[in-house]
Amino acid sequence: AFGTCPLSTEGAHDLISRTRAAALLRGYRGTPFADEEALVAAMVRLSQFAQANSATIAEIDVNPIRVLTAGQGVIALDALIVRKQH
Fold this sequence. Notes:
Blueprint: H1 9-17, H2 21-25, H3 36-52, E1 57-62, E2 65-67, E3 74-76, E4 79-83
Antiparallel strand pairs: 1-4, 2-3
Helix pairs in contact: 1-3
Protein backbone atom coordinates (compact mmCIF):
# COMPACT_ATOMS: atom_id res chain seq x y z
CA ALA A 1 0.00 0.00 0.00
CA PHE A 2 1.21 3.50 -0.75
CA GLY A 3 0.49 6.87 0.85
CA THR A 4 1.77 10.41 0.65
CA CYS A 5 3.91 12.28 3.15
CA PRO A 6 3.31 13.25 5.79
CA LEU A 7 1.12 10.37 6.98
CA SER A 8 -1.37 10.86 9.76
CA THR A 9 -1.99 8.19 12.37
CA GLU A 10 -5.28 7.39 10.65
CA GLY A 11 -3.54 7.23 7.27
CA ALA A 12 -0.94 4.79 8.60
CA HIS A 13 -3.66 2.56 10.09
CA ASP A 14 -5.46 2.65 6.73
CA LEU A 15 -2.32 1.65 4.82
CA ILE A 16 -1.72 -1.27 7.18
CA SER A 17 -5.33 -2.43 6.89
CA ARG A 18 -4.93 -2.66 3.10
CA THR A 19 -2.11 -5.21 3.38
CA ARG A 20 -2.04 -8.95 3.96
CA ALA A 21 0.24 -8.27 6.93
CA ALA A 22 -2.66 -6.71 8.86
CA ALA A 23 -3.96 -10.15 9.89
CA LEU A 24 -0.50 -11.21 11.06
CA LEU A 25 -0.18 -8.12 13.24
CA ARG A 26 -3.50 -8.87 14.95
CA GLY A 27 -2.73 -12.31 16.30
CA TYR A 28 -3.16 -14.62 13.33
CA ARG A 29 -3.87 -18.25 14.34
CA GLY A 30 -3.12 -17.76 18.00
CA THR A 31 0.11 -15.81 17.70
CA PRO A 32 0.47 -12.85 20.04
CA PHE A 33 -0.66 -9.44 18.87
CA ALA A 34 2.15 -7.37 17.38
CA ASP A 35 2.93 -3.77 18.35
CA GLU A 36 0.84 -2.18 15.61
CA GLU A 37 0.82 1.16 17.43
CA ALA A 38 4.63 1.26 17.37
CA LEU A 39 4.56 0.47 13.65
CA VAL A 40 2.06 3.29 13.07
CA ALA A 41 4.20 5.70 15.09
CA ALA A 42 7.32 4.73 13.11
CA MET A 43 5.49 5.20 9.81
CA VAL A 44 4.21 8.63 10.85
CA ARG A 45 7.62 9.80 12.11
CA LEU A 46 9.43 8.50 9.02
CA SER A 47 6.95 10.26 6.75
CA GLN A 48 7.42 13.50 8.72
CA PHE A 49 11.20 13.14 8.37
CA ALA A 50 10.85 12.53 4.63
CA GLN A 51 8.59 15.57 4.23
CA ALA A 52 10.90 17.82 6.26
CA ASN A 53 13.91 16.72 4.20
CA SER A 54 12.27 16.41 0.79
CA ALA A 55 14.69 18.93 -0.74
CA THR A 56 17.62 16.60 -0.15
CA ILE A 57 16.17 13.06 -0.08
CA ALA A 58 15.44 11.18 -3.30
CA GLU A 59 14.19 7.99 -1.68
CA ILE A 60 13.96 6.06 1.56
CA ASP A 61 13.76 2.28 1.78
CA VAL A 62 13.23 0.58 5.14
CA ASN A 63 12.87 -3.15 4.63
CA PRO A 64 12.31 -5.27 6.54
CA ILE A 65 10.82 -3.84 9.70
CA ARG A 66 10.34 -6.35 12.48
CA VAL A 67 7.23 -5.63 14.51
CA LEU A 68 7.66 -7.05 17.99
CA THR A 69 5.00 -8.26 20.41
CA ALA A 70 2.55 -5.60 21.59
CA GLY A 71 4.28 -3.08 23.82
CA GLN A 72 7.78 -4.02 22.61
CA GLY A 73 8.17 -1.69 19.59
CA VAL A 74 9.62 -2.17 16.12
CA ILE A 75 13.12 -2.67 14.72
CA ALA A 76 14.27 -1.55 11.28
CA LEU A 77 16.56 -4.36 10.15
CA ASP A 78 17.79 -2.58 7.03
CA ALA A 79 17.40 0.94 5.71
CA LEU A 80 18.69 3.09 2.86
CA ILE A 81 18.36 6.83 2.36
CA VAL A 82 19.40 8.12 -1.07
CA ARG A 83 20.26 11.79 -1.37
CA LYS A 84 19.22 13.81 -4.39
CA GLN A 85 21.96 14.61 -6.85
CA HIS A 86 22.32 18.35 -7.35
